[in-house]
Amino acid sequence: MPATEAITLREKLVSATEDILNRDVTRNEKLFAVCELLADEVPTFNWVGFYLVDPNAENELMLGPFVGASTDHTRIPFGKGICGQVALSHETFVAQDVQSEENYLSCSLDVQSEIVVPIMVGDEFVAQLDIDSHTKDSITEEQKETLEDICDLISDEF
Question: How many C-beta atoms lie closer than 10 Å to residue 155's C-beta?
């Protein structure tokens, strides 16, 4: 296939996410399927999960669907760690070396890089996509933009 016809990973992931979101299943089943997609398609994504704003707690995230090793971080207060920081800033955060981040909550000694992307409905923060990598400096600008596109699509589920 000529290069001009090649489908980029970004196009593939966004299209596959759209297909997942069109399924007649629960929101959590859709979110879990997106986790599986990202973990399967991007070799450096070792843990992929969602943290949702807990409607029954003040300024606290609760762990939602994820793939990868289990985590002790099932609840995170806004402001604590990178996830809690993104809950306040509503801005994507990329840590190419988590050990250099003062606010990092360690989930595993294997984690080297992390990206957290907020999910917004209008001006309201509702959830976030959190991805850990066992490879330092592994989060590319294209991955960041792709994940932001995916989170924009997912916002319609809230």
Answer: 16
Contact 49, 63 (CB under 8 A): yes
Contacts of 140 (CB under 8 A, 6+ apart): none
Q: What is the token pair recorded at 26? A: 């629960």
Tokens 């399924």 label which residue? 23
Question: How far is residue 69's CA from residue 88's CA, in Å, rounded to a whole number?
Answer: 26
In angstroms, the CA 52 to CA 130 distance is 11
* pTM (predicted TM-score): 0.93
Please check whether the domain covering 3-157 is classified as CATH 3.30.450.40: yes
pLDDT tens-digit series, residues 22-56? 999 999 999 999 999 999 999 999 999 999 999 99
